[in-house]
Specification:
The structure is a homodimer of 770-residue chains.
Chain A (H helix, E strand, L loop, with lengths): L1 E5 L2 E4 L7 H7 L2 E2 L3 E3 L14 E3 L23 E5 L2 E2 L6 E10 L4 E9 L5 E10 L6 E10 L3 E10 L10 E9 L3 E8 L6 E11 L2 E3 L2 E7 L2 E10 L5 E11 L10 H18 L1 H17 L4 E4 L2 H17 L26 H13 L1 H13 L1 H10 L23 E4 L6 E3 L2 H4 L3 H16 L2 H22 L1 E2 L5 E2 L17 H24 L1 H11 L1 H13 L27 H4 L13 H4 L10 H7 L6 H11 L10 H11 L3 H16 L13 H15 L2 E4 L2 E4 L9 E8 L2 E7 L3 E6 L6 E5 L2 E5 L2 E5 L2
Parallel strand pairs in A: 26-30
Antiparallel strand pairs in A: 1-2, 2-8, 3-4, 4-5, 6-7, 6-12, 8-9, 9-10, 10-11, 11-19, 12-18, 13-14, 14-15, 15-16, 15-19, 17-18, 20-27, 21-22, 23-24, 25-26, 27-28, 28-29, 29-32, 30-31
Helix pairs in contact in A: 4-20, 5-6, 5-9, 5-20, 6-9, 6-10, 9-10, 9-11, 10-11, 10-13, 11-12, 11-13, 16-18, 18-19, 18-20, 19-20
Chain lengths: 770, 770
């Protein structure tokens, strides 16, 4: 059971061994380099212990796809207290809590536990993954017995962990140095990345440093020491454990041999141990303050819960994002579990990128550089499918991996077989999403350097793909047949509105930029022309772009999701709309059947309205909302936040707020203990930020222009947030009927549309609703 | 806590979640084709769930050695009773017992369990691995609630298991047929063996067959159904689960494609399900009676415990031995765990083979054919090391794997590194052990066909190795330097007595057989001459064999174990002699240091006295016993039984009996809960049989002759056993001072030495001690 009463802290108030994944994933620690799932120190049945390092993808076998491997576990510490194993499912406990402090990134668990022998102990467990020293994990265990106690700690490094049974590592060297520093050096089996994982232990009894009796044990794929200490009643025994992880893929280890890396890592470990837990934790808390809370302040004058959830979103977006390395991107479950294998989806561009664009444009640029660096894979995919240009993979991992979507997943309840996943083959809108992300980044940041080096080429190369993908129809128009749109309950559809409108947008934008470059940057144009063949392509694009078939609103103003959706049969969906867990319909129908029903997994035309809002009149949005939302099961975590923002956009912030509150529950619902077992829903945290800042706060980049037109729900009296617009930091204070904008940089005038009126101001703007 | 009061059954009388491995390994089920570690249906932390199939070796990575892979788990069944997970560590229980019935091979667990909700249930779990249908596993779970109960069974096939983290399988196909038959088809990653693993479920409520509500779930590497039933108070709900395993390495599947094997396996599964648990269990019990208890009756008029332990030894020897396939041999942990990776050691020839030679010569022949079929690996090893002939691997797996001893194992407490294992490089006595096994088999069975096809060649080829391995010394003699003898606490020693005496024996035997074949079987001789170059080799052998250096008893009649042992320093070993667990000295000294101390891991010259007993006078044996035994830590499970037999041989059966009783505890000691965690000690079961039948029963093949000279301990009034001597079944009844031998076959006269006198008899012999 999670408690949300503190605006900075989430607290598990009673230990539930049947819902371990809930806390492991949601309370995950990390820093963009590594992610550490918050399994407890002592083991429990059903736990998942994950230590993931960004970008270290490995493929177990040709029949599987590459994934982020689960590195060795360093967090397991087994305590034996006068012969009883510390185990919360045995004996009794009081004063239990486990708290994630978002402000500091510190995870604390405290409990007073009485063993089956009737002996009582007070225990405190603290853990931090440093946001300053990206390779460092620090832990502290404090035990205060109420009677004289012999305490045994068993602790080490355990490389027996897998990804659901797939083992990505050879064992490598296992070694103790000076009987006290543990070092484990496994290597990934296919991608050939050597990991160096170290650990060290430090003890005090009653505040005095001690060197307890210990042994050393090297076993297959694991190594540990067993430390034995005696504590008198009331005396506190403290173990500080330090661990670090380095890999040969690290940019900061470039050029080091494995032996040098081992030595380097060991030196850093000794430094960490010398610093001690308190110093490391304080340093990391300072980094959280500086990098996140001071940099991206969001203040809600409303329910503490909402404030907490927005911070929780920021917390996870920070820890899941490998901002240190442009060869890496964000995984769909962040670093909090093995789900989606660490792969990057359109989630980055559509759901997460806006937060970074408006708040940390350096991070956003790194994420967009990743797409540029992945072009070889996109070219290969297009070529493999007989198309031109860049066809981005639906799921993306290491730069040259190309398409990594698994081919099968889940259970077909009719055939009894695993379900074929078509996304990797035909969910092609990702290519337009990438182009849209580039444009969005450029429009908001004005980062011309990025565009010149990467951005124009990306948009043009994507357009090249779309032009080759269009198929002439008997109607004389060009179609995009046999796709999966955003709504993945519809497979093999033709002319999905989202896909076609975005494809057209992409080609239009390419034509526009090509003309502009030819006129304004002839050298760059010449280089891109040579690379992409623009001169030949442009007339073709110009001709084709006019002929792209686009679904049009029907007589009821409903925009058809694709060429057949509105003709499919309707069924009573009330059972699934009321479901406690997502995916219930898959237990009654298989994908073939669902494809033939008017039911959606997630937002589809809604996302289109949101990205290209000025293409559609409000009545089409309203009618489409009323048509599709009742048919949408929100079986994807990408759905609720889009609906919320759209609801706010169309003037119903109370509906938007109710959707926002539902979106808050995707991972944290106490009634749904297993929803985060495979990891948190990364994109939904970008979604929460969008609900608040886009939806209620009214921020949007529209057609290259800034708009701030708040739609505040009644529960929020005031919302303050900051944003960077083309290098200038703006501070926004929104209420139901006023907006104050302060240009904290003040280097140049800013033009902004507020509630339908355009303003240009230097330092401050106050606008009121009519 | 194990109870041994029933002469046919071992019973765990209270459930100990901290000692799961004890029962998992000792209560292991199997049939020589497959071995199933007896983990409970419901999972517990710290369990090891192993399903091993003989001969299916796979190598995870080049840095590891090949091993028997852990195939998917089919035994996990999770029960939820009115919302409470069935878990013996929660709530309370009474009437608990888990019993392995050796007579029938049936494993039964019964308990009356009260959940934390206060609801009470009586549960019975039964399990059998069929000794008749080698691919079949059958289980039955019966639940009788004391209140109306909603019962959920979650059961399927789980391929996420590993060998200590090393995953040997690709996932392969995962499929439900007709929503009720589960099929999982993984493949080993290196050796390319496809496994087909099936499961099916059948239910009754109150004796009536039902088809409960269920779902089907295919997840990564695992698949399961969740069945929900309602039971009224007092009504019994029964689940019968059937599973089978086939592989493309099976001889009985030879020629089948994977698709055909899948279909074949599914048909067999349906047959098993139709037969039902009772039929399968009864069939298997009949097979145990026929194949083991009727075929190898051993009756002890003495403590029931001793009777039980001898049966336990027979039970494990039966289940661990892949008698169905001569391409396979016995693993050092049988099928009961992952220890020693399923590899075959000298344990087969020296410790286990005698049981099969004297009782199941067909099985013994298969084991010895394995050695012949492994010759290519032995040739490769000799060649790699610069020697001639056949150098058998210290550890052996699949026929062409050659040497598979891991290079590193354990912890060097001084260097903090893993310990280099020298056995694979220099523990060379295995080659003589193999030759000795061949000779032993021939002498006892008279199987001339085996000798003509395989046996002579093996002995000659081994002799060829030895002749090339001898090194001339400055003393004009030939030495065997830099070896590990049977006592593995001594590395890099010269002229280990066991090795040198056996090498000489091997060359002598080769010379003898070569001469005999040339005279009596010129065609066979010519063929072997062409293959091995005998004509050239024989004169060299004849010259060399006379010059082999052999340690000689010193002035105190102690035979030196090697060239330096007796000169090493002595330390006070009392701490280690009194140790509760083996290997304690390794916590204080590292291997380099131990090599320089007069301390032995296990029997060394004792094994020599036992194999070549007529070479050494009784006073040398006595003096050597008194010298070495106090310096022997019995840190190998091969040690106690040899000492016991030797003690009986030298006329101290009470000492032999005390050693036998200690040997009985190797796996079953209640005070040592983790001694079987990695699996039972396979050779020790051959050892227990030898203590009884060789040691107390006085059976021995000596110099090709039969000897039956009992040395009965006081605790045993009478011992009855049978044996096959050159095709004739003899029934022996021994007491302290009489022997009755009945020739049940009675086809020819039998010559036997009893207590120093030679007798020849047709049907019956009664002899009395002087």
């Amino acid at each position: 059971m999670l408690d949300f009463t503190d605006p900075w802290k989430i607290t598990e108030v009673n230990f539930d061994p049947s819902a371990l994944g809930k806390v492991e994933a949601n309370f995950c620690l990390g820093n963009g380099y590594l992610g550490l799932r918050s399994a407890t120190e002592e083991k429990y049945l059903g736990e998942t212990r994950d230590l993931l390092v960004a970008g270290t993808f490995d493929r177990f076998s040709p029949e599987e796809v590459t994934e982020l491997p689960n590195a060795a576990d360093v967090t397991n510490i087994e305590l034996t207290l006068n012969g009883c194993r510390f185990d919360l499912t045995q004996g009794s406990m009081k004063n239990y809590h486990r708290t994630l402090d978002l402000k500091t990134g510190l995870l604390v668990r405290e409990v007073t536990w009485t063993s089956l022998k009737g002996e009582t102990f007070t225990l405190k467990f603290e853990r931090v993954v440093s946001l300053k020293r990206l390779h460092t994990i620090a832990m502290r265990v404090s035990v205060t017995p109420e009677q004289d106690t012999k305490i045994t700690f068993q602790s080490g490094i355990d490389g027996r962990v897998t990804c659901d049974g797939s083992q990505h590592f050879t064992e490598g060297q296992t070694r103790f140095y000076d009987k006290k520093y543990l070092q484990f050096t496994p290597k990934t089996i296919q991608s050939d990345i050597t990991f160096v994982i170290d650990a060290a232990h430090k003890f005090t009894v009653g505040g005095q440093g001690v060197e307890p009796a210990s042994d050393i044990n090297i076993l297959r794929r694991h190594m540990f020491s067993r430390f034995t200490l005696e504590a008198e009643a009331g005396q506190t025994v403290v173990l500080e454990k330090f661990a670090n992880v380095y890999t040969t893929r690290d940019k900061d280890a470039a050029g080091l041999s494995v032996a040098e890396l081992q030595e380097y890592a060991l030196e850093r470990l000794k430094e960490d141990a010398l610093s001690g837990f308190d110093v490391l934790a304080a340093e990391s808390a300072d980094a959280w303050q500086e990098k996140v809370w001071d940099r991206v302040p969001i203040e809600i004058d409303g329910p503490d819960y909402d404030q907490l959830l927005i911070r929780f979103a920021q917390y996870h977006m920070q820890l899941m994002t490998p901002a240190h390395d442009n060869r890496m991107n964000i995984g769909a479950k962040g670093f909090s579990g093995e789900g989606y294998k660490g792969h990057t989806f359109w989630d980055t561009e559509i759901f997460l990128l806006p937060y970074f664009i408006f708040n940390m444009p350096d991070v956003a640029r790194s994420l967009e550089e990743y797409r540029y660096l992945s072009l070889p894979g996109a070219h290969a995919k297009a070529k493999h499918n007989g198309y031109d240009g860049a066809q981005f993979p639906w799921e993306s991992a290491w730069l040259d991996d190309g398409e990594v979507t698994p081919e099968y997943m889940g259970t077909d309840i009719i055939t009894g077989q695993s379900i074929k996943v078509w996304s990797g083959f035909i969910e092609i809108h990702i290519t337009a999403d990438v182009a849209f992300g580039v444009w969005q980044y450029y429009m908001c940041t004005g980062d011309q350097d990025y565009m010149d080096r990467y951005g124009y080429e990306l948009i043009l190369d994507c357009a090249k793909f779309w032009a080759s993908r269009l198929e002439p129809g008997e109607d004389g128009l060009l179609h995009i047949n046999d796709v999966v749109g955003p709504d993945e309950y519809k497979e093999h559809v033709n002319d999905n509105a989202f896909t076609n409108y975005l494809a057209r947008w992409n080609i239009q934008k390419a034509l526009e930029y090509a003309a502009q470059l030819e006129a304004e940057k002839p050298e760059l144009y010449a280089a891109l022309d040579e690379k992409l063949g623009l001169s030949e392509l442009r007339p073709v694009w110009a001709e084709k772009v006019e002929k792209i078939f686009l679904t049009q609103p029907n007589e009821h103003n409903v925009l058809p999701q694709d060429s057949t959706y509105l003709t499919l049969r309707d069924i009573d969906l009330s059972k699934y709309k009321a479901q406690a867990h997502v995916g219930g319909i898959m237990k009654d129908y298989n994908q073939d059947q669902i494809t033939k029903i008017q039911v959606s997994k997630q937002a589809d035309v809604m996302v289109l309205f949101y990205l290209l809002e000025d293409l559609f009149p409000r009545e089409v949005k309203l009618a489409s909302w009323d048509y599709y939302e009742p048919r949408c099961l929100h079986d994807s975590s990408l759905s609720l936040s889009t609906h919320s923002v759209l609801a706010s956009d169309i003037g119903d912030p109370e509906l938007g707020y109710s959707m926002f509150r539902k979106a808050c529950l995707i991972d944290l619902d106490n009634e749904n203990p297993h929803s985060s077992d495979a990891g948190i829903h990364a994109a939904s945290y970008g979604g929460l930020w969008q609900c608040a800042v886009y939806g209620f706060g009214g921020l949007r980049m529209l057609g290259g222009k800034l708009r701030i037109s708040p739609n505040m729900p009644q529960a929020w009296k005031k919302l303050r947030y900051t944003l960077l617009w083309r290098g200038q930091k703006l501070s926004v204070t929104a209420t139901a009927d006023t907006v104050e904008i302060v240009n904290e940089t003040g280097a140049a005038p800013v033009t902004v549309e507020v509630w339908g009126k355009e303003y240009t101001f230097d330092k401050e703007l106050t606008a009121a609703k009519d």
